[in-house]
Amino acid sequence: MDRATFACSTAFFRDYSSSSQGAFCLPGGHVDFIEKVESFTYSDFFRDYLIPNHPCIFSAKFTEDWGSRRNWVTWDGKPNFDHLLQKFGDAVVPVANCDVKEYNSNPKEQLPFKEYINYWKEYIKNGYHSSRGCLYLKDWHLSRAFPEQDVYTTPVYFSSDWLNEYWDAIAVDDYRFVYMGPKGSWTPFHADVFRSYSWSANICGRKKWLLYPAGQEEYLKDHHGNLPFDVTAPSLQDRSVYPRYNQSQPPVEIVQEAGEIVFIPSGWHHQVYNLEDTISINHNWVNGCNVAIMWCFLQDELAAVQREINEWKDPMDDWHLQCQLIMKSCTGIDYKEFYNFLKVIAENRISVLENGLDDEASAKNTPKAAISTLGMLHAVFDLKRTVKVLTSLSANEDFKKLDLTSLSPPPEALLHHLKAAIDTALL
């Protein structure tokens, strides 16, 4: 089955339960390696990795036509500093200090890109040492800042991307990033924003990943319920601090080569090291396969906030609203914005189902074009998953306590529209 005919796949109509997204054990820590572009379809990825929430690695053949693979790398596989300075020299970029712990991450600062590249060159020249520490350029929104640059094309497997579809629509943010760092730079233990999927493609260099299946992180918490900063630290062996560590599985370890793409499943915690001077492209994304996990994450986050400020519940008239505000400051979204997120995704699919796709829209890199590429049955699948989560949100007591008069259309009307669109599409 090729990508175009995937629309005819009946896989979308299987009743996958949310429990299929839970933790599981990979035999021997094995992670599938996808070698050939021509023999691996979106349907294969959907069935074997998205729905069961399994990691995999795509070979360098999947990225060989990217502009960044051609132009950002020297003949011997190193970062092409001269080219990067020519294209992006005037940019200002976020840089983290890997040698300093600030709460449970590394402190960040904004630096001119020119200054960072000069630092990187000196760092290499000095045997990978600097009085400034090991600096890692992280979470750079390069695609948003330089949309005209030929950097990469999102593989079709990752094109059902609700996070970036929504944040592009409201023109506020995106979850497309570039990372650049010297050998020895690293990212502490974490799970991705909203418990999203992520994909990471090495433009050059090599990475080592330590992955823990969803649920395994519970065994790695200390006696206060906090996750470790570094899962390789000897202190994890201290049972008085980490009482359940000996019950955890060993991490799944991946060494990612230049050009390869790693798919990280939803809710999997991980820690990442650059084994060489490395540049990577990274996306976070949510779709119909894991939106229920995002909703569960938001409920857990709100419950944590409510526990934290429970003593203020009685004297505070707007306690429920304050909980939402705190949750949004911590996670980036609250319940009302989550409703609007679901609404934008649903209305885009309803528009395609009801009105089709004009030639101009299909020729552009737009959400509607992506829906068209994956097929009308994919749009129906998305709507069915949205109905399930929206039904749960609408019935949620914390959601009902908010002032919902600003939501347009009201949740009940949107649900009715979604169900009618699904019924019409399946006639």
Written description of the protein model:
With 427 residues, the protein is an alpha+beta fold. The chain folds into two domains: 262 residues, Cupin (Jelly Rolls, Sandwich); 137 residues, no CATH class. 35% of the residues lie in helices and 17% in strands. The chain has 14 helices and 13 strands. The chain has a nine-stranded mixed beta sheet. α7 crosses α8, α9 runs parallel beside α14 and α12 packs antiparallel against α14. The longest helix is centred in the C-terminal third of the chain and has 21 residues. The two termini are 24 Å apart. The relative contact order is 0.13. The N terminus is likely disordered. Keywords: Iron, Metal-binding, Oxidoreductase. Its cofactor is Fe(2+).
Distance between the termini: 24 Å
User: Which strands sit side by side, in order, in the main sheet?
Assistant: 1-2-11-8-13-6-5-3-4
The proportion of residues in beta strands is 15-25%
List segments where confidence is low: pLDDT < 50 over at least 5 consecutive residues.
1-25
Helix content: 25-40%
Number of helices: 14
Using the coordinates shown, work out and report the CATH topology of the largest domain.
Answer: Jelly Rolls
Whole-number total of structural domains: 2
CATH-defined superfamily of the largest domain: Cupin
Kindly state the number of beta strands: 13
User: Which CATH-level-2 architecture of the largest domain?
Assistant: Sandwich
Main β-sheet: number of strands, strand sense, barrel status? Answer: 9 strands, mixed
Q: What is the element string, with H for helices and E for strands?
A: EHEHHEEHEHHEEEEEEEEHHHHHHHH
Instruction: Give the CA-based shape.
Output: globular
